[in-house]
């Protein structure tokens, strides 16, 4: 029962921090310092990634109609007027092409160098610096954007080139833990003239193949021989992350319609300093 309660807490933290641009890695590192799961290091390494599948299912359910590329209803851009091709939504297919293009940089580096990068950069120094640097970036970019109008106000206006550039920013998050995948892609999108709402939506959609791919990679490396204890912890963590993510995503989409991202920038700076001081003096 104690381990289930721990898994619930990890799921809550994952569900909140995965979508807010404040770094789930930074929070997980701090949480693990105070509350450790009674599992092997190999399982915990896998758990940190695969728990994100719960968070991803929240995106799939909330935005299903916005990205599912098949169906005759609400299809203003069918591939053909009649027949089976009339069920193909051209605008959604094009959106998925952009999403997959944006995934290329992180996917290539992740497959080739995942373990090496984790060994080199998965430490509190990197996480702290990444939290602070991207926190400052949020503040500076939002101050700049306060005097400029966004050029891109819909997902359809994101070009292949823009999608690839956003993917490069996502690559930064793949290399340096603490950057925050959502934080990096949102910062990149804002720099490229994408509106806050569209930047957040594209970040959500971009997470689907990225997290499914990363989770599959981790599960394959770990193996499928879960003990009952491990299976329960993983399932509980994923379910809680899913439920919490539903509320957090809705909150974020409502919040950014009236506010900017600077509050998250300041939070990141404070958290980065806290993480750094904690490990220097108490870790």
Number of helices: 12
- SS strand fraction: under 5%
Structural class: mainly alpha
Overall shape: it is globular
Mean pLDDT: 90
Spans of at least 5 consecutive residues whose pLDDT stays below 50 are: none
Q: Residue share in helices? A: over 70%
Keywords: Antibiotic resistance, Cell membrane, Cell shape, Cell wall biogenesis/degradation, Hydrolase, Membrane, Peptidoglycan synthesis, Transmembrane, Transmembrane helix
Family: Belongs to the UppP family.
EC number: 3.6.1.27
GO cellular component, one term: plasma membrane
Topology:
Elements: H1 2-17, H2 24-34, H3 41-50, H4 52-62, H5 64-67, H6 90-121, H7 124-145, H8 160-175, H9 181-191, H10 196-222, H11 228-255, H12 262-281
Q: Mind explaining what this structure looks like?
A:
The chain has 12 helices and no strands. With 283 residues, the protein is an all-alpha fold. The protein has one domain (2-281). Helix 1 runs parallel beside helix 11 (228-255), helix 6 (90-121) crosses helix 10 and helix 7 (124-145) packs parallel to helix 9. 39% of the residues are buried. The mean pLDDT is 90. It is a multi-pass membrane protein. Belongs to the UppP family. Catalyzes the dephosphorylation of undecaprenyl diphosphate (UPP). Confers resistance to bacitracin. One of its GO terms (cellular component) is plasma membrane.
Considering the chains and any ligands shown, give keywords for the structure.
283 residues, mainly alpha, 0% strand
